[in-house]
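A common beginner's mistake is to predict each chain separately and then try to dock the pieces by hand. The better habit, illustrated here, is to supply every component at once so that their relative placement is modeled jointly.
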Amino acid sequence: MAVEKTYQEINERIKKGRAVVVTAEELVSMVKEKGITRVTSEVDVVTTGTFGPMCSSGAFLSLGHTKPRMKMHKVWLNDVPAYTGIAAVDAFIGATEVPEDDPLNSIYPGEFRYGGGHVIQDLVAGKTVRLKATAYGTDCYPRKEIETEITINDINEAILFNPRNAYQNYNCAVNLTNRTIYTYMGMLKGNLGNAHYSTSGQLSPLLKDPNFKTIGVGTRIFLGGGIGYVVWNGTQHFPGINMDESGTGFGHAGGTLAVLGDLKQMSPRWLAGTSMLGYGATLTVGLGIPIPMLNEEVCRYAAAGDDELYAPIVDYGEQYPNFIPSNLGYVSYAELKSGKIKVNGKEVPSAPMSSYSRAKEIAGTLKQWIQKGDFLLGEPVQLLPNTEAGIKANSLKG
Amino acid sequence: MSSKKVVLYFTADITDQPIIYRLVKDYDLVINILQADINPQKEGTLVVELTGDNFGPGIEYLRRLGVAVQPLTEEIIQNEEKCVSCGACTAICPTGALYIERPDMLVKFNSDRCVVCRLCVKACPMKAMEVRF
Ligand code: SF4
Ligand code: SF4
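With all components supplied together, the output reads:
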């Protein structure tokens, strides 16, 4: 009879220190060797990981009250504006925010040396951060300004809340124009000078559970070096299947996650302020998800190797910026990782934007946590919509 | 035997001269071309590493021809604390000085191949590539 395991059974084994845990990379070769049936019964949990720039990240900070009290109206952290339109002393610092006097792209390409992502990294590192706030003053909250210093330990709460992380799959970006362009996919030289991709392929969390059979609201994860949770689907969650013109499928894409965790237990090694030349500031996030080997189907998807996972090649010179559907073909992660791919018959050097070695470290760390019995699996209270939901993207008019 | 890296700037009227050949033949220098750029107007820059005892006279010869010679004194370093081995610099580095070591996918830096073009200094999202004077 085919194996069926429950979260409870697996968690019992984890508590006893008897769970068999492997990384997604290890699973790929294991399944090639022993076959799905054996591996499904032998392995309890498969760990994944990714470490790449992830916009749509940020942190809620509850700063604590001042004396006299103050209803903050504008807040800056190391000169980076934070959003405080939620409560008197609560603020949200977004990863892509930059100081008001940043030259932006007026000196092209802008450097974006310091932004919200860097503030988050400095906070997590325990560094002192300058807080400035202004207010209009009320009867109950009379104070109108403050300039002080904070550290993550002085403030009441610091919660990392990333509304869209862990993109299931991503484009392989190239540039068909004849000039160098600066994008969120890095510096792309003209005339197909290079190709950049940005997932950890066979280690990438949502490529290993492409139908959201195990990942849902309440899944406990590695987030920023600490423990976090999947709290919802991410924004722009459009799970679907990549296809070429003839209708041949090239795997899943489009899923995203909203994740949350206590920033105070995270680490600057796994939340890094990031400056994309000519594009902006952001945060590089380390994220890893354990996938329980509930049955053979779950195991089969988790065992997909770099040679079975594909990224669409997209022109960021003309087509992407103008929102023109573009596909220059599909390329496997095995080819992308080799450092050379073929686009329009030309050999193009390929390079990642997301760190495979760090992704591997995340999957390895998560594996250790589970093996030691420190980390139990969170059974989702609700699974996330998958391709069957047929969610379509809207775009703005005007 | 000493070896030095220099940047050579030359104008269109010199491009048709066999300077490299002369440096090898007459000055017995070993030449490693690290980077070559010649624009449509036929002006160009060459970054070369010259090895040999006649380094001084070789440079003299180039200056006589009207080639501007500048030593490559700046150095690029990879700050290993900051580098996360993302790889974003590896396909833009023109010389392969920054490269991915497979299968571990760690990003390594070979300063011998670096021509200090600074592309990585600008493009590294972690600001891990630094200029040293
Ligand atoms: S771009 Fe920067 S962080 Fe990324 S591998 Fe190169 S030096 Fe390291
Ligand atoms: S400066 Fe950077 S990009 Fe230029 S050659 Fe040196 S390592 Fe490569």
